[in-house]
């Protein structure tokens, strides 16, 4: 889809969690011109994270999750799963009625989120670490309460992180956690082993790394 079409007709994008994945979403959305910095609010309790994001991406930042919600058209849950109980308790009943919620947390089901948050328009997604360079392989599913225009919003936001595929069975997201989720880590181990083998054979580390990197790029293009 064209990056010239705004992601939001009104309101703003609230990202709860300014860590690796929350930052990646900021970069992806901004790099595709899907929203302006003024249309993004990131909530994170860590002052250093807030300062970094405000400085690097020029987005608005707040400390409390609930403070990012008023006027939000989309809400992204980009916190670690172990933080979910506290975050859900803080935002329950405070999400704007027409907003779309997108979760990128592993292991938290659609039904649980709909119950905990008191909100029906929820999308659950499973990106991987390659989202950091906007090359994620993501799988996502929408709850029955998600409207068609909201599905398109989810598709565009997740597409800003790389390739995003919608599925109809939630169990496939749990499978993706074990397939594409840790995939970059597995491939990195293989690449490192090949590089070490090249160094042992007499290549400089820089040359071995260059050859292995290009081998992976070429293989992906086959």
Question: In words, what does this structure look like?
Answer:
By secondary structure, the protein is of the alpha/beta class. It folds into two domains: 12-178, Rossmann fold (3-Layer(aba) Sandwich), CATH 3.40.50.720; 183-221, Orthogonal Bundle (ProC C-terminal domain-like fold). 43% of the residues lie in helices and 18% in strands. The protein has eight helices and eight strands. The protein has helices spanning 20-31, 47-57, 84-91, 110-117, 148-159, 171-178, 183-201, 205-221, and strands at residues 12-16, 40-43, 60-62, 72-77, 100-103, 122-126, 136-142, 162-166. The chain has an eight-stranded mixed sheet with strand order 3-2-1-4-5-6-7-8, sandwiched between helices. The longest helix is centred in the last third of the chain and has 19 residues, at 183-201. It is globular, with a radius of gyration of 19 Å.
The CATH class of the largest domain is Alpha Beta
Arithmetic mean of pLDDT: 90
How many β-strand stretches?
8
Structural class, please?
Answer: alpha/beta
What can be said about this structure in brief?
By secondary structure, the chain is α/β, with parallel strands linked by helices. The protein has two domains: 12-178, Rossmann fold; 183-221, Orthogonal Bundle (ProC C-terminal domain-like fold). 43% of the residues lie in helices and 18% in strands.
């Amino acid at each position: 889809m064209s990056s010239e079409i705004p992601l939001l007709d009104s309101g703003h994008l609230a990202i709860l969690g300014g860590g690796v994945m929350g930052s990646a979403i900021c970069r992806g959305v901004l790099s595709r011109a899907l929203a302006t910095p003024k249309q993004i609010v990131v909530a994170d309790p860590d002052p250093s994270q807030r300062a970094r994001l405000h400085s690097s991406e020029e987005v608005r930042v707040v400390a409390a999750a609930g403070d990012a919600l008023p006027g939000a058209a989309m809400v992204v849950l980009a916190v670690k799963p172990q933080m979910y109980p506290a975050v859900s308790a803080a935002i329950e009943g405070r999400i704007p009625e027409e907003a779309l919620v997108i979760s990128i947390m592993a292991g938290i089901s659609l039904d649980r989120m709909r119950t905990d948050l008191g909100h029906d328009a929820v999308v659950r997604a499973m990106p991987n670490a390659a989202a950091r360079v906007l090359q994620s392989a993501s799988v996502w599913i929408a709850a029955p309460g998600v409207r068609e225009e909201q599905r398109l919003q989810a598709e565009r936001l997740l597409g800003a992180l790389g390739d995003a595929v919608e599925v109809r069975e939630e169990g496939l997201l749990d499978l993706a956690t074990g397939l594409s989720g840790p995939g970059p880590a597995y491939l990195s181990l293989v690449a490192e082993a090949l590089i070490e083998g090249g160094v042992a054979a007499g290549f400089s580390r820089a040359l071995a790394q260059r050859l292995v990197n290009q081998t992976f790029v070429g293989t992906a293009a086959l």
